[in-house]
Design goal:
This protein is mainly alpha-helical and 164 residues long. Helices cover 77% and strands 0% of the residues.
Length: 164
Amino acid sequence: MSGLALFTIFHTLISIAAMIAGLFLVYGLLRGQRLERLTLWALGLLAATTITGFLFPIHGFTPALGTGIVSTVLLALATAARYRFAMAGPWRAVYVTSAVAALYLDWFVFVVQAFVKIPPVHALAPTGTEAPFVAAQAVVLLAFAIAGYFSVKRFRFGLVASGA
């Protein structure tokens, strides 16, 4: 197995761990829980996913590179809002919104990769413009938009238990 193949597996495992930790983080936000350790893990794994994504061979500007740049900005905002500005005032909404949006991007890429690399899924949308691909991305976007909206409404820094 080549070094690139092993690195791809490593990156994929980090991405899956980030997606799972991120879902638990969003669940905590929806329940109004801070979940200190889980937040650190989720943001750290999302950052590791983004960083390792930049370590693949880059041949010009691609949608993947653009997604990585946006993810980097979102994670920087989430981290600053959470740890530097202690989610005071508008920073609470900045934290919740940027953390949920960064997680959404990880799931967005997961759907893209599933349609590119899993043969039965690829057969449903070989060019990535067909209805099954668009529907899958729309469902993911809608789910995260709804989760983000309710997370901002329900997560109140000063009024919540810290949790795990």
